[in-house]
What does this fold into?
Amino acid sequence: MLLVQGLLLAFAIVVILMQPYIRLLHWLGFGKHIREEEPEQHTGKEGTPTMGGLLMIAVVIVLALALGIYDASTYAPLAALGGVGVLGAADDYLNARRGEGITARQKLLWQTVVAIAAAIYLQHHYDLTAFRVPVVGDVYVGPAIWVIVAAFAIISASNGVNLTDGLDGLAAGTLVFSFIAYLIIALLNVPNQTNLAILCTIIIGALLGFLWFNVHPAQVFMGDSGSLAFGAALAVTALITGQALILPIIGIIFVIEAGSVVIQITAVKTIHRRVFRWTPIHGQFELGGWDEEKITLRFWIVAALAAMLGVVLFLSSLHMLA
It folds into this structure.
């Protein structure tokens, strides 16, 4: 019952509070600054309120506490959500005030601190020393390597979602499919992780409530406060379920978006040429003439299929353990 209640309550609260929250962001002057080098289509987004993710984070944490689902399986995702959310909110604030946020190096340093802390907590609490490889089974790596890989997964997912958050509805919609996949995995896991599953439904409900205002043309952006935080929480959720190695499949859109940026930077530094006209790669499709809504919907379709494939791979590994 709490699965449905959590989703509906989160959706309703975000929808009810978002409109006055948007007015507050307008009044405070927290509008998005569009960089000159961005595609021309984005100029109309200048001044759209950002930092919408902060409201979602608050709703998720308060609801999780109100519904009493805080236990070992939810501490780390909630801590990652709040810890990285503070970093993202600071970046959004500085961007709105100065037109320039926290430097990439400072951002990465804070993400690394949170990621390592979360990874160490998970490793010690669950005594994790192996990763579950689909079709193969558990592969032992030892505590130190587990922490390093886990921290890398958290940082990568956080930045991957952040880079995806460039079109109306794109990051939030893609996150919904990813969390639906881990909701199913948490419910079917052995032993099942009911509280973690309920937390996933709360996050899904909050994201759907946000999408009500974020679909094209967006009335509000989630900003770094949302994209960085929910990306980190997704990775921590994957680690707790023991299904971190299928995260690159479930979150394939985040991998492609981040990968395109890595390829572009590498190409520019090594051969002094661009591979893509614009990165992250959704910008390539924009410059190719695709409408924003078409890009978003097609990326959502890929995300939904990837989530289903990830669940199938999880079920195959579950069958092996049985």
